[in-house]
TrEMBL record:
Residues 22-90 form the HTH gntR-type domain. Keywords: DNA-binding, Pyridoxal phosphate, Transcription, Transcription regulation. It comes from the Bacteria. Gene3D superfamilies: Type I PLP-dependent aspartate aminotransferase-like (Major domain), Winged helix-like DNA-binding domain superfamily/Winged helix DNA-binding domain. It comes from Flavobacterium cucumis. This is Transcriptional regulator, GntR family. SMART domains: HTH_GNTR. PANTHER family: HTH-TYPE TRANSCRIPTIONAL REGULATORY PROTEIN GABR.
Length: 499
């Protein structure tokens, strides 16, 4: 029996790696399924008994039993007591719909376009571009390689085992605030100078979702929204999608020019001002204390909302970050957007909104439509990381690394480009603002550097009659990669300036 054709075939086809994270019985099951799909094993073929099967592959008999049970559960084999295990071909679960036209084959081809008209949105056109380049630049994202994989596996496993998890998921009512909301409140009160309760807080999947929900609540078509003259591309797309009339405001080394707002707008004409007070996007300039106070006073006088996007507050590399405007707002003029867990994998980061209670109540109602389920495992995990102090520890640990990378990036640009650029070392964040003097064609720079295996996305290029700059994210690159990328940028720069 050991030398039967089926046994010889199985012995030849099946290979497994005991060091793999995938269980051995799953690896073997997948290969048997593949053999059935390729017709190497015909329907009705008898597989060897579990004792012989285990001897063939030199595995434990319990593993052999698990393989057959997995195959049977998926419908690939039938186990008949006292007879054996036989190959099946699973029947299609859905019947084909017969075509009502002469072109029968069209019924089994999914259409590329709708048979009805609908209004497409220019603002929702994807800006993501893809590249096979070895080095891909971004606007300042964390390095996922710093994610604590082994510790995280333990934390995640512990969260999954909580007996209260199923109860929370099945709950149809909420009589008190979740542990996560209380822990997040405590964290924000301690780290950002807030004095909030869960009534003032709602968590979302991301800062982009936070901004989308707030924009839907605040902005009606043709409402005026003020942003910096360069500003955040994604934020602008969200504002345009909800129908806002976007007006740009000059910025300088101290952030938004508040005097300009007061001179060119009147009470009742502004719906909201979007500002990255801690580090302006993309220039990394901090809104000064004087201008923060001036903006708060003007918001009260003109009755407009301030959307304060503090997307990288946690990455303060030296000194102390200025506390959010929202923490000193006694008139309910500021809606604060932030992010938690940026030292973790993206799927375990969370956005949040801090605002007066009536806004938060409406935002939660909106999220009941968009994202009712939420992510209880993520919330449980983050609650424990906050309570145990792990979030703070990870930030401290990574801040040392990012500070070193920032300094190295700054030194490399100065060394390679000398007086060809203007550059200022930011106090925080994971990106540096690089201005070219004299001006060059940034599109040509991106094209040339792509030939050197570096991808410079168009969303990082800022060029008009007054600006020629790029936002260079260094967080995801180590020091060796930073040196390579900047050297290649210099080579591309030399090519376009000498032609």
């Amino acid at each position: 029996m050991k030398d039967s054709p089926v046994n010889s075939l199985l012995k030849e086809l099946i290979y497994f790696d005991k060091t793999s994270t995938t269980s051995v019985y799953i690896q073997i099951s997948q290969q048997i399924i593949n053999a059935i799909q390729r017709s190497y094993l015909k329907e009705g073929s008898a597989l060897p008994g579990t004792r012989i099967f285990s001897q063939l592959l030199h595995i434990h008999r319990n593993t052999a039993v698990a393989v057959y049970e997995e195959l049977a559960a998926q419908g690939w084999v039938e186990i008949i007591p006292n007879k054996g295990t036989f190959v099946l071909l699973p029947k299609p679960k859905t019947a084909k719909i017969k075509a009502i036209t002469n072109q029968v084959e069209d019924a089994y081809r999914y259409p590329k376009t709708t048979g009805f008209p609908f209004q497409t949105s220019f603002h929702l056109v994807a800006t993501d571009t893809f590249s096979e380049a070895k080095y891909i630049l971004n606007d300042g994202q964390p390095d996922l390689r710093l994610h604590p994989i082994h510790e995280f596996s333990k934390w995640y496993s512990a969260s999954m085992k909580r007996k209260s998890l199923i109860t929370k998921w099945n709950s149809s009512s909420k009589t008190k605030y979740a542990t996560f909301e209380n822990q997040l409140c405590n964290y924000l009160n301690a780290s950002r100078g807030f004095h909030i309760t869960p009534n003032n807080l709602v968590s979302t999947r991301s800062t982009e979702l936070s901004l989308y929900v707030i924009s839907r609540l605040l902005i009606r078509r043709k409402d005026v929204v003020l942003v910096g003259n360069l500003s955040n591309y994604n934020a602008n797309m969200i504002f345009q999608e909800v129908g806002a009339d976007i007006k740009t405001i000059p910025t300088d080394a101290n952030g938004l020019d508040i005097n300009y707002i007061e001179k060119h707008f009147t009470k009742g004409k502004i719906r909201c001002v979007y500002v990255c007070a801690n580090r302006d996007y993309p220039t990394t300039n901090t809104l000064s204390a004087e201008r923060r106070l001036q903006l708060l006073q003007l918001a009260k006088k003109y009755q407009f909302a301030i959307i304060e996007d503090d997307f990288d507050y946690d990455f303060q590399l030296e000194g102390s970050a200025m506390v959010p405007m929202a923490s000193s707002d006694g008139n309910g003029m500021v809606i604060y957007l932030g992010k938690l867990g940026q030292s973790l994998f993206p799927s375990f980061q969370t956005g949040f909104v801090v605002a007066p209670e009536n806004v938060i109540s409406e935002a939660k109602n909106y999220l009941q439509i968009l994202d009712k389920q939420g992510d209880l495992i993520q919330e449980q995990l983050l609650s424990e990381l906050i309570y145990e102090g792990e979030i703070h520890r990870l930030l401290k640990k990574n801040t040392v690394i990012y500070k070193r990378r920032r300094d190295y990036t700054f030194d490399c640009f100065k060394r390679y480009f000398n007086d060809s650029i203007q550059i200022k070392k930011p106090s925080g964040g994971l990106a540096i603002w690089i201005e070219f003097t004299p001006s060059i064609s940034l599109v040509q720079l991106a094209e040339q550097v792509s030939k050197l295996d570096v991808f410079l996305p168009k969303t990082l290029l800022y060029q008009d009659k007054n600006t020629c700059a790029i936002r260079f994210g260094f967080g995801h690159l180590n020091e060796e990669e930073i040196e390579i990328v900047i050297r290649k940028l210099k080579l591309a720069y030399n090519i376009i300036t000498s032609s």
